Amino acid sequence: MSTVRLTTAQALVRYLCAQHTLVDGEKVPLFPGVFAIFGHGNVTCLSEALEAVQDKLPTWRAQNEQSMALAAIGFAKAQRRRQIMVATSSIGPGALNMVTAAGLAHANRLPVLLLAGDTFVNRRPDPVMQQVEHFGNPTVNVNDAFKAVTRYWDRIVHPEQIVSSLPQAVATLLDPADCGPAFIALPQDVQEIAWDYPEAFFAETVHAIPRPRPDRERLAQAIDLLKSAKRPLIISGGGVRYSGAEKALADFAARHGIPLCETIAGKGAVAHDHPAHVGPVGILGSTSANALAAEADVVIAVGTRLMDFVTGSWSVFAPDARFLSINTARWDATKHRALAVVGDALETIAELEAAIGGWTADGGWTQKGRDEFARWNAALDDFQRPTNTPVPTYAQVVGVVNTHAGERDLLITAAGGLPGEAVKNWRVKEPNTFDCEFGFSCMGYEIAAGWGAAMADPSRTPVVMIGDGTYMMMNSEIYSSVLSGHKFILIVCDNGGYAVINRLQNAKGVTSFNNLLKDCRVKELFGVDFAAHARSMGALTRHVESLAELGEALEWAKTTDRTTVLTIVTDAFTWTPGDAWWDVGVPQVSPHESVREASRQQTEARTRQRVGV
Fold first, then answer.
1. Which among 20, 254, 387, 499 has most CB atoms closer than 10 A?
2. Rg of the chain's alpha carbons, rounded to an integer?
3. pLDDT tens track for 472-498
4. Taking each helix axis from N to C terminus, what angle separates 363-384 and 287-295, rounded to the nearest 10 degrees?
5. Which residue intervals of 6-56 are DSSP H helices?
């Protein structure tokens, strides 16, 4: 067996460079790049290995470990999980900064490879700088924190171990059922050790994402259940997009007269005006989809984990509704006593189509979906119509941005008031042009994801929408995007604090406290000039005072050669209706009658929840 002598770090990098995949029939690198902040633990051995392969595996310098890993995830979402970025940090705080990003990837079933430096296996220098010591267990350090938020975790304590570990990490990253973040800890002394690796380990490999087909007996049961339905409803989840099943599901719904609604992650699988589309469902949903969900007798959930914002904490469906769940993940497919069809969405839909024949839903039910959606669209027109109020609403701002966005431009948002307002008000022009990260609802994802998405597809412009709170939490990758030349357009809606949480606080009877800046303990209340701040990081910027100015600024932003930031003051108290109920904790004892009443309402609403697992 022929071998090649390499350090552990060099062998790891060479293996990554040898992995390829197919995207739209074209062979491309499985790992197209690395986001890195170097420090002790990765600045000598790993950086030395990466520097040597810049032409094959480019390294991008970031400003914050969390945001660079979020950029990697934004890249993966834009590529619909078909390519995977790497993020590497030093030990200690550098590694811990990536834990939040790992949690986001884990919650959303998204692939990212995380490499962190680690302490010395030989323990000779212990304790090293930034080492957190556990007196009763010296094998534990901060990297163990990733165990709770990764699908694959390993610590390499001998050079040979990567021969078995790396293929397992890649298999996890590509597994449609088990997809999520993979983490590998790299002790400093192990990275430097040379070993004779078999050359076969570095052979070029072209990966194909597997498409598991459904069990035939379960499929037959699914067809029987669907044919028994009088009022079927399809819920299209994020898994539909990752399977590439958007058109197949849309055609299936239209051909058989089944109304199709979307989850937050699934929004964008179909264009807004698709004949079967009835809008988003759940807490951030539309009155149309929620009205149909309340009457549906069979719910076909495709590629969704059915989180509480989709199900209205399991209150939006009829108590006797039956669920047919199509999912590659058994865990997701079996929720709420569903008839679980475990399989790839595209393969399963094709087999359903072949077996179901000419069956269609009742024409009256199909028409009800169209009528409800028409009413919802008329309501959206009203919500978005400009008025003479001094401060525009979120709906009006979203409407203007939507109007001026190109057909292929990608809308990105994640936290605060914008997810609800964008999910409801954004009318998707082409499939796969909408990214609302709400599985983790991570403040700080948006700007970083804009950078990653721009890197993933230079042929379109990401349009990122955030609030002032999110901007203050994480904005440094504006600078990174300017440095690297990956343009996105950022709209900052300044509503004076954490307005959507203030809304929830008030809705449950609690007095406004510590959310809007005016309700916080401050010495002096003043606003931030976000445009000036972004300008200092190299972005082009404008502050606008009206919806008309915003439209003009958006047209200008399309012509610029770098990341462009637009800021506008928005209303903190006006929201688009359509919400379903949400189960949150409300104090059962309080001196405030408003809280006691909210508690009574919460208790009564819980009687309408479906009981399941």
1. 499
2. 25
3. 999 999 999 999 999 999 999 999 999
4. 150
5. 8-17, 45-51
Place of tokens 């698709």: 274
Distance CA 109, CA 305 (A): 10
Residues of the chain with CATH 3.40.50.1220: 216-375
Nearest C-alpha neighbor of 495 from the set 525, 466, 460, 536 = 466
Find the helix or strand (DSSP H, E) in which 450 lies: helix 445-456
CB 537 within 8 A of CB 482: yes
CATH T-level assignment (fold) for domain 385-569: Rossmann fold (3.40.50)
The closest alpha carbon to 442, from 108, 163, 58, belongs to 108
For CATH 3.40.50.970, the residue range(s) in the chain are: 3-207, 385-569
Fold adopted by 3-207 = Rossmann fold (3.40.50)
Beta-sheet strand order (sheet of 232-236): 277-280, 260-262, 232-236, 298-302, 322-327, 339-342
What tens digit of pLDDT does each residue of 525-541 get?
A: 999 999 999 999 999 99
Cβ burial 218-236 (10 Å sphere, 16+ → b, else e)? bbeebbebbeebebbbbbb
pLDDT digits (tens, 9 = 90+) for 22-76: 999 999 999 999 999 999 999 999 999 999 999 999 999 999 999 999 999 999 9
In whole angstroms, what is the distance from residue 570 CA to residue 53 CA? 47
Domain 216-375: which CATH class? alpha beta
- Which residues are registered as beta bridge partners of 118? 187
Residue type, 160: E
The first and second tokens of residue 499, run together, are: 């307005």
Q: Is 464 helix (H, G, I), strand (E, B) or coil?
A: strand
The rounded distance, in Å, linking the Cα atoms of 327 and 289 is 21
DSSP 8-state assignment for residue 510: P
AA identity, residue 27:
K
Count other C-beta atoms under 10 Å from residue 444's C-beta.
25
Provide the token pair at 61: 């310098």
More confident residue, 387 or 542: 542
Examine residue 127 and say whether the peptide bond preceding it is cis (omega within 30 degrees of 0).
Answer: yes
564 three-state secondary structure? strand
How far apart are alpha carbons 477 and 484 in whole angstroms? 10
Q: State if pTM tops 0.90.
A: yes
Residue 210: asked if its preceding bond is cis (omega within 30°), the reply is no
SS3 category, 593: helix
Choose among 214, 176, 178, 258: nearest CA to 350. Answer: 214
Closest CA to 343 of 176, 200, 516: 176
> Would the pLDDT of 241 be above 80?
yes
Q: Quote the DSSP letter at residue 106.
A: H
C-alpha to C-alpha distance for 487 and 485, rounded to whole angstroms: 6
Cα 294 to Cα 231, 267, 287, 290, 580: the distances in Å are: 10, 20, 11, 6, 11
Say how far apart CA 437 and CA 105 lie, in whole Å: 10
